[in-house]
Request: fold
Amino acid sequence: MIDPLSSPLLTDLYEYTMLQSYLELGMEGTAAFEFFVRKLPENRNFLVSAGLEEVLVFLENMRFSEEELAWLRTRFPSRLIDYLSNFRFEGDVDAMPEGTLFFRNEPILRVTAPLPQAQLVESRLMNLLNFETLIASKASRSVLIAPDKLLVDFGLRRAHGAEAGLLAARASYLAGFSGTATVLAGMKYDIPVFGTMAHSFVQAHANELLAFEHFASSHPGSTLLIDTYDVEEAARKVVCLCKKGFSIRSVRIDSGDLAKHASNVRKILDEAGLDGITIFASGNLDETRLEDLVDAPIDGFGIGTALVTSGDYPMLDCAYKLQEYDGRACRKRSEGKATWPGRKQVFRQFDANGEMHGDVLTLEEDRLEGEALIHPVMRQGKRIFERRTLHEIRQKTIENYQRLPEPLRRLEPAPYPVEISLKLAELAERTGEIKSA
Reply:
């Protein structure tokens, strides 16, 4: 049975029509494609690279089953089918490590392979890199606004499909979230899993106190949802439970004036000597609401819809473009979508305090001051770097935030300089005038 998420048919038709033409024309020279974002969303000061692991897994395992070949055989000539029957990705990949902060026009991944191979993988690679980078970049804003709070992905039920829910859990954790409510993401990615209870559990009981008793009996040290009826009255019931010896770790508020309710609940719990019980809030939250709530007595937040859909900006202006073919630099010159040609590298420079000071976009062979951000990750279809755990990637991402200039850590727009090197500018001039960059 075909797994739709790993099938090479999960792509656009034109990848196969171009593949047919390339083979017929004998165009199998080496091509270099780069994935980059043309411009940042107006409300993003930087982006967080994510999705590389899924890309490498896809490339390593890309195969055509007999069922897939049979379907393609009804639409394409036998030469194409013969080519695909023994298909293995044999190219090279260079990329920024996941968790790297990047800016417009900076490639986070380059595929160098025979032209038919490099072209065929375009759509799925863009699909994976675009989505995880989109969500990681959205999540980073909440992490920077509330760095000391428990942040949990609550988004599965409103995600745009099952894979989106899983990858959003991964991307948000990579960006610094504390964990997810999605159980499969916990198993698949080893992400901490958090959960509370639903209003339906309370409503299914004759009264709220009985519901709390039953849940706390089944799950000692649990989190109780206290806004089904009256928040403050429910907090007093929690006090009664604790006096009876029940173990309660946290209470959750999911509606109303969260700051006001949290203050009232904190007072009720503290007066009863229950200052160890934490308060968790949810309910249509995003980074702008967190900014308003960060000083309230709330210890953690569940963030769902706005996170997994990147509600304020649900797409990136990303591209996967041919930058070199058969030793010749290539450049797209379309109005408003012109590209910088050639295989590229990004050098990041830091000031005396270790903060990011500016980037230089240049050619791969150039050697400039600063830290080179793009590294070899795959050669001839095989990984050549040691795989990091998601926990290690998350820690590195958080360390990268510490090197951001202070203005870029805020929600308000702030500039960051990305310079075009002289060598790259000269190559662009030789390959045609760039009208928009």
Q: What stands out?
A: The longest helix spans residues 122-145. The CA atoms of residues 185 and 271 lie 39 Å apart. The chain is about 40% helix and 20% strand.
